[in-house]
Amino acid sequence: MEVIILPDAEAVGKEAARRIAELIRRKPNCVLGLATGSTPIPCYRELIRMHKEEGLDFSHVTTFNLDEYYPIDPRHPQSYRYFMDENLFNHINIDKSRTFVPYGLAPDPYEHAEWYEEQIKKAGGIDLQILGIGHNGHIAFNEPGSSLASRTRVKTLTRETIEANARFFDRPEDVPRYAITMGIGTILEAREIILLATGEGKADAVAKAIEGPVTTMCPASALQLHPRVTFILDEAAASKLQRKDYYKYVHEMAEALKKQILEARMRA
User: Fold this and answer.
1) Which end of the chain is more exposed for a tag (fewer CB within 10 A), N or C?
2) Does residue 138 carry a catalytic annotation?
């Protein structure tokens, strides 16, 4: 496990984007696992910039998103398909037919979950999976108590999750009660995983995931079992980690990023 601590959310996003771009340039037909939410937005902004200013080519990339509400129309502003289109896909040269997001109006969501799992296998598996983390340690919609061997499936949302998401909908009763989500077992099969976390509100979950025991009550702790996982954190999200040697990355990475930004400005 690698833990990288950077000054702020923008630096976290730039470092994640740098690693994704490195993979795309090395393997143009790579398979990416993507996440929604506010945390990866700086990463997606940087990927869009790299595409427009540096020619980063997404034309042969395949993507699989972690999850989607159910039921929800993909055209709904709160659907994860809509989120991905607006925050990434519409701004790069990716083939939309190669961008997979669970279908929020699938006639049989259980059958669709099995189909989704099969599409990941047909694509050759996920090369790099991007994750966020919930305040309670969840990854995707795998809430505490989820099996560490779980596969893509239909999950009932907890009351806490429904209440937390109600602010995004016109009425509380409009919040979907279910989701189609990759399972923890599915996520752990990715060849490489990067988890992004920013803000003090994620500090407890991050500390449990990295330094706590592997337990279903903190689903992200299962990442300790993976041979190639990197946590990219801002200082606030890393604030409750006990091992202080992580902090050696803060100034090293910050200085490297400052140098890159300065050089880019000089070239502009």
Assistant:
1) C
2) yes
